[in-house]
Recover the amino acids of this structure.
């Protein structure tokens, strides 16, 4: 049982480049979400999904897009990377009605 | 607005010392509270959670937390820390406005000196 899998683990981008952070879970969880972790700021919610085809914005959605075409996958897209998006990104999933979230290993993104 | 405050940013303890990490929340409704731990280089793991019932909650690895509604607090405790408890600890509450996703505090880094 792999749980929540994120790829890549590390990424360096140039300003203006685009990329997609991948997140997959094999627990058949309805809820999936993306957080960013910055020093001194904890984890902040970027986007979330309560099921396939349904997404919504969290606390810091600007500069990011998401989609949820399947229950398993919830990719996060950076359309035009900016240095302010340098961060560690965590994907999480949980079962509807059970608010315990399971987290992936994280993606460390640096935008230069 | 909903918020979670962790006033201790960095705590340094010697092994066998007792630990208490503060967490205060502001939210007027029913709260579900969590403590997560992040060991160096790893992802977040659930330590314990409070939904209802006994306000003293026991979690993994000897951790416990007490929910005090009148003080809007959910402090994490451990009687005797070990070097392996060195990690960052996050308090979190459920955010109903975000379909019950988690709203995190800023975290407390714990360093345990052997």
């Amino acid at each position: 049982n792999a749980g929540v899998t994120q790829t890549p683990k590390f990424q360096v981008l140039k300003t203006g480049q685009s990329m997609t952070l991948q997140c997959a879970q094999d627990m058949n969880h309805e809820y999936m979400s993306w957080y960013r972790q910055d020093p001194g700021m904890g984890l902040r919610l970027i986007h979330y999904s309560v099921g396939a085809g349904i997404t919504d914005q969290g606390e810091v959605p600007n500069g990011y897009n998401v989609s949820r075409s399947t229950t398993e996958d919830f990719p996060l897209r950076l359309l035009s990377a900016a240095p302010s998006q340098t961060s560690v990104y965590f994907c999480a999933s949980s079962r509807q009605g059970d608010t315990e979230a399971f987290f992936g290993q994280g993606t460390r993104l640096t935008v230069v | 607005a909903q918020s979670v405050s962790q006033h201790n940013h960095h705590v340094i303890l010697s092994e066998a010392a007792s630990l208490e990490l503060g967490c205060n929340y502001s939210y007027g409704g029913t709260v579900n509270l969590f403590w997560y731990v992040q060991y160096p280089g790893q992802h977040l793991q659930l330590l314990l959670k409070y939904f209802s019932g006994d306000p003293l909650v026991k979690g993994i690895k000897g951790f416990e937390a007490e929910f005090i509604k009148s003080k809007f607090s959910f402090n994490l405790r451990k009687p005797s820390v070990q070097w392996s408890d060195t990690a960052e600890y996050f308090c979190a509450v459920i955010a109903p406005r975000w379909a019950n996703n988690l709203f995190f505090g800023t975290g407390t880094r714990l360093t345990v000196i052997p």
Notes: The mean pLDDT of chain A is 93. The interface with chain B takes residues 4, 31, 33, 35, 40-45, 48, 50, 56, 58-59, 90, 92, 99-101, 103-106 of chain A (CB under 8 Å). The radius of gyration of chain A is 13 Å. Chain A is about 0% helix and 50% strand.
